[in-house]
Amino acid sequence: MKKFKILPFILIIVLALGIFPVSAGALDDPSVSASAAVLMNADTGDILYEKNGTATVQPASTTKMMTALLVVEAIEAGDISLTDEVTAYQDCQYNLEEDSSNANPTIEPGEIMTVEDLLYCAMLQSANEACNILAEYVSGSVSSFVELMNQRAEELGCTGTHFSNANGLEASDHYTTAEDFALIAKEAVTHAMFLTVCGAASYTVSATNMTEARSLTNTNQLLVSSSDYYYEYAYGIKTGYFANAGYCLVSAANYNDMNVICVVMGSTTSNGQFADSLTLYDWVFSNYSHVQLLSSTETLIATVPVEMGTPDSTGARASSAVTALLPNDYDTSSLEYRVTLYYEQEGESALEAPVNAGDVIGEVSVVLDGEVYGTSSLVATNTVEMSRATYLRSQIKSMFQEPVVRRIITILIILLAAYILLVVFYRLQRRRHVRSVRQAKRDRAIAQAEWETEWLDIPTEKRKEPSIGYFDDRRRDRRNDYSQDDYDDYDDYDDYDDDPDDTPPTSRNGRDDYFDSFFNN
């Protein structure tokens, strides 16, 4: 019976565990003794692990990483050359303590060495005087070179770093952070010449005018095969130490295409910086891997409308895959794609045909938990030909949307309206005039008939040929009732003679021809 009483409690516990699952991606942090440490993805700059990453620390001789970077950049810019022979200036050992690291033996004033040999002395042997000589050769003085160091650090995004010398000797105004030095290392490892120098386990400096050949061994034990801390995947970069800074190491390693920078500052024991670095590398390479977040061939990101096209749309896919270095058990269910289409940025509503398969039409960013893990160009998946009929309609529509064309059309409409009004006005006036002329013709015909009747009513024996004045008087009387224009224009409207209303009454006694010729002349 007791077993059955316990069973419900077990079920409750199991259900509770199911309701409150352990969050995916919650890795246990590695254990390191250093006061500050950072693991950075060397390809993207993403921070994979940090311990006091923004805390102020003293970088000691890891400072020489920045010195070497500036020398390499000066060589790449053509300002100096690896084979340049440099004479050590008189004060090259300024501010060096007796037990500070040197080229073994120390480079003396007047000694001639190449830029290449000085770089190896600075990076492998951590020679402080070599840094002073290089600084003066590049910038003319150590102080000018230090200004360049601070300027370059700011350009690389360092916000907690300030340099006061070129070799890392202790100074109150010489400091940095683990994250800042990871940023500097990220830039440095992109230069092949820098990697060649800092990745060498050993190097022989040619004999000079003052010393025999020097044999150098890299102080970075991760690179020395005979060391207990040798790490086959490591390829740099620089060690550092003084009492107040502790043991420091900036290194880089590549495993399974995972390119990682490791910064360890302030380890408390000798070789502690190497042990901490190995711990961090083991942790990241065991728990992280590249995850493909976006395929370049399978994933259709969007369907994009195409104006004047046949068909009227095209698909859009990424031109390259997007991968990210993530914890092996990371939950990618919240993955999202942020699409930017160039035609939208230009204020257009769609692409314009023709579109060829493979044309870049935008870009897509892969976002996971609010962080952008990569961006790829968006390319068209299919070709869209231009529809000529649609194109013609579009061109016509576009033409009529031009301000100049609109103004011309407006002017033409106004002129046409004015012309129509003039025509209407003219026709109204013409019609009015024609009516008045017709009326004048009728009145004249009536008058002629009346005069003819009056003449015929005179007895035959008393008739005389009418004087010209007789008819003039009657014509004058009739003209008083009509405008002069009606009579002047009478002959211009012979086409109205066919109007029955305009035919005068028939005259009597065969006098028609006489009166017609009289009145018409």
Q: What characterizes the major β-sheet?
A: 6 strands, mixed
Determine the structural class based on helices, strands and strand pairing: alpha+beta
Tally of helical runs: 14
Shape: elongated
Taking Cα atoms only, what radius of gyration do you get, to the nearest Å?
53 Å
**In what range is the share of β-strand residues?**
15-25%
Strand order of the largest sheet: 15-17-18-13-11-16
Verbal overview:
- The chain is α+β, with helices and mostly antiparallel strands.
- The protein contains 14 helices and 19 strands.
- The protein has helices spanning 2-19, 64-76, 115-123, 128-139, 142-155, 178-188, 192-198, 272-287, 342-345, 388-400, 403-456, 468-479, 484-488, 512-520, and strands at 36-41, 47-51, 85-87, 112-114, 202-205, 214-217, 234-242, 246-255, 258-267, 288-294, 300-307, 309-310, 313-318, 322-327, 336-341, 351-352, 360-368, 371-380, 385-386.
- The strands form six sheets. Strands 15-17-18-13-11-16 form a six-stranded mixed sheet.
- Helix 4 (128-139) crosses helix 5 (142-155).
- Mean pLDDT is 85; it is low at 1-5, 7-25 and 489-511.
